[in-house]
Amino acid sequence: AGNRTFTMIKPDAVAENNIGAITKMIEADGFRVVAMKMTKLSAERAGQFYAVHKERPFYQDLCDYMSGGHIVAMILEKDNAVADFRKLIGATNPAEAEEGTIRKMFAKSIEANAIHGSDSDENAEIEGSFFFAGIEKF
Ligand code: CMP
Q: Residue 51 belongs to what domain range?
């Protein structure tokens, strides 16, 4: 049991064959994979997912990048899932990410930063529901 967060392995990490290595780190840190799906976002759907950032200067680039390759979406379960997962992935900018974090190891830039993690319980639920139907989220 425990509570849940949502993650996406981003196109840069998928393209570099790091799905397995990243998922191994997630499981080794005590997260249980509740749901998992590989898919590709259209630019429009990427725009919907990142709608909170639509006034940011990096929004269009972000939508192009996130729709430029396959992603792996997952719902993860662990006590204190949201906060613990953000600790595991590290800072948005890999130059600032701590040693041993997923972004320190796999991210290429502040945009192509290997992985997403929800920033609140509420957003974890919203983001998980963006990718998974109720019957897929046991
Ligand atoms: P994430 O935190 O998962 O969600 C928002 C994404 O926007 C972030 O990861 C990066 O991929 C991207 N992003 C955030 N800040 C910047 C920035 N300053 N320049 C380019 N991309 C950014």
A: 3-136
